[in-house]
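seq/struct pair 1
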Amino acid sequence: MAFHHLSNWVGGADRVQELEGRARELEAMLEERNHQLEEANRALRKMATIDGLTGIANHRHFRDFLEAEWRRALRDRSPVSVIMIDIDYFKAYNDTFGHQAGDDCLRRVAETLHRGVGRAGDLMARYGGEEFVAVLGETDVDGALALADRLRAQIEALRIPHPRSLCGRWVTISCGTATMFPSQDSHPDELVGEADRALYQAKREGRNRVVTPPAPAGDAVPVAATGSVVPFPDRRH
């Protein structure tokens, strides 16, 4: 009888160990599944913020980033700058070389612009079509102008042939910059609007150049002597 009870006890202990082992296996499998789910969610979040063609930030990410940067600058009382960028005569490029070549051109331009921004805290995004936009925190008028003209020169230096461009032999860009100190009464759309109007003026002036709105007093903005940076006409008079 005692041997029978001992046998049952040993058998029960083995069963407990088996169940504990299976529980550990299930726990490890569950942990691995959770890890895979987290990785998948991270990938989905990244896909939601990345432009599928160029691999840089998309318009949605730009909007979220600008609003966050705007709030931070409002708190810190620091300037925020935006650069609106457009590839010159891109429709003519597409018509000449085809949409596949156009996509390749967009990718090369996007990669160069992304690298050219430099600072980790800034953002370069595809705004839509052949337009791009940069958000620069703690960057004043002169800093935005200098970066915009450096980006313009870097794109021209790629020497991507563009026989139907009216401003040179190569693919070029036009840039409009704007800088604001956020306030409780202002909105980031105002900053984007100013940069967009400056870009429009750059295109009217002949393209392959950088234009900035006037200083608050209407004075010309000091810029590097590149010949490609001009002040935005003051329309308040």
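seq/struct pair 2
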Amino acid sequence: MKRSETNRRIAPAPQQRSRVSTHCAGLGRRSSPRAFTLIELLVVIAIIAILAAMLLPALSKAKLKSQGILCMNNTRQLMQGVHLYSGDNQEYFPMNVHGSVAQSGAPITAAATSYYPWIMGWLTWDTSPHNTNSQYLTSDSYSVLARYVGRSQKIFKCPADNRVSSMQARLGWNERVRSVSMNGAVGIGNKAATDGLLNCEKVFAKTTDVTRPTPANLWVFVDEHPDSINDGAFFNAQRNYEWIDLPSNQHNGACGFAFADGHSEIHRWRSSVLRYQLKFMDLTRQPVSSQDPDFLWTIERTSYPR
């Protein structure tokens, strides 16, 4: 009788082990990872795409803003170099040459007929070595500003101007050496106030000549449009309503200027300058309305009429 009762007491044990084993097996199945469905993956991808579309314009604007700051810093350093040079040379601005003199690439000499330019060279969209010759900017043999700007090549270049023509790209070029030009009415050279390129009251030979416009309103350096730039002089004639040389518009429709008082700014265009997109072609003279706000803003700060 005792044996029978003992058997009845211990008989259920195998069933309890079976239930525990089954319960643990169930836990194991619930803890295994579940794969994403195709729809869930597509939703995640769509969310990422939407976020990217929202962020990219902001990143692009931030890049343009940083390029604008670098551009202003570059032209401000150039103006500091001009002031240092003028202080050492009886307040004369560096000479500003154009045309055949700039194309000649002639070095500075001690001869009485020698020019003392701020830079030398002539930029094109072809494979001329002038396009990559940094010596025209940083060597004392060609540039009187070189020693005053620490022989830094980068300050002659707008960071937004990084395009080359197809034939230049085939040579492995990734940029031309310069994008900055100097006001044609500033600094003596192979030009005169009566030239059709200027038609102004006078060329500002010295810093002390700058009274009208005032130093804060006379621009000295500009980022020139890549299709317009060639020599280092930027010309537009007073009361001749045409773009001879064209300012750049690569800062999201704006352009960098440096003024005779030493400050730099980014000016946003409103009208005609915005029409000229990069074509890798030499820009010819372009007629402009006598009421065009972009032309009037530029010419009023270039010089004044005779």
